[in-house]
Amino acid sequence: MTLKVILTRRWPTAVERALGERFDVVLRSGDRPMAQGELAGAMGECDVLCPTVSDRIDADIIAGGTRCRLIANYGVGFDHIDLAAARARDIAVTNTPGVLTDATADLALTLILMCARRAGEGEREVRRGDWSGWRPTHMIGSALKDKVLGVVGFGRIGQAVARRARYGFGMRIAYHARHASDAANALDAQFCPNVTDLLAMSDVVSLHVPGGAATANLIDAGAVAAMKRGSFLINTARGGVVDHDALAEGLRSGHLAGAGLDVYPQEPLVPPALLALENVVLLPHLGSATAETREAMGMRALANIAAFAGGAPLPDRVA
């Protein structure tokens, strides 16, 4: 029997075509998120549900899974899926790791450069027609060479960011993780078992930890206060890792020089406290947004669905 697969959003055309050649695929004609009721209904109609980070697959949705046996997530993060509820109903969950490492690392460096050189402020000034011409004291930013990049979370993406910063911009690297990493040796990176120590010594802090209860509001008011005065915070991980009210206060007070964010707790809503601040760069979740990466993510999801269909071990099972 051909598996019925439901996509919750539009996927790259090449991936939709490849899925359609092998399975009974239900595609989205538009590109809006499914409502919770639609998601619950889909769980009862398909063998495989393919959600994205914009879908909240909670226990109530999973309870509707009278037919669904696999949730093949389009993306590496899975904190929007209730894994315990999925396990309780014997529904497998997969993700798409590895393929978005370089794209996300590139975007983290984009945010670092935009913050350090005040590129967001400058671009807005030009568009408003407020630029009065070059002058020696205009919009002075910060150099990166010899500054300390503190990487919080030293997995694939954190390491990729560290390599770019070390070899591309001559930054010094420090990192916090559960354990010291052999990969840090080539970067001459300093391991900080205590995240507060890392925050205090870093000129730029870049977050690369998973979402979920363990990391919720990791950067809270206390963490912001512990950060080096004049430093920058970069988040391409998950929005819930940062207390945005505390961050906004740190930016308003001048304790932090700037921040660059690509993710938010309740997307597409952006915390209102940040919108009026000039010293923050706000991007619309572009971490994996290259044509090559988005197609590779879909093909990785396809590989998991194909393994499931063939009764083989799932390459990227997380539950």
TrEMBL record:
InterPro entries with a match to the protein in the record: D-isomer_2-hydroxyacid_DH (IPR050223), D-isomer_2_OHA_DH_cat_dom (IPR006139), D-isomer_DH_CS (IPR029753), D-isomer_DH_NAD-bd (IPR006140), NAD(P)-bd_dom_sf (IPR036291)
- What are the residue boundaries of the D-isomer specific 2-hydroxyacid dehydrogenase catalytic domain, all occurrences included? 18-318
Matching entries from PROSITE patterns are given as: D_2_HYDROXYACID_DH_2, D_2_HYDROXYACID_DH_3
Q: Which SUPFAM superfamilies match?
A: Formate/glycerate dehydrogenase catalytic domain-like (SSF52283), NAD(P)-binding Rossmann-fold domains (SSF51735)
Any one Gene Ontology cellular component term annotated for this protein = cytosol
Which keywords label this protein?
NAD, Oxidoreductase
Where does the D-isomer specific 2-hydroxyacid dehydrogenase NAD-binding domain lie?
109-287
GO terms (molecular function) for this protein are: glyoxylate reductase (NADPH) activity; hydroxypyruvate reductase [NAD(P)H] activity; NAD binding
Q: Name one Pfam family in it.
A: 2-Hacid_dh
Origin: domain of life = Bacteria
What family is it from? Answer: Belongs to the D-isomer specific 2-hydroxyacid dehydrogenase family.
What is the protein named? Answer: D-glycerate dehydrogenase
- Which lineage? Bacteria, Pseudomonadati, Pseudomonadota, Alphaproteobacteria, Sphingomonadales
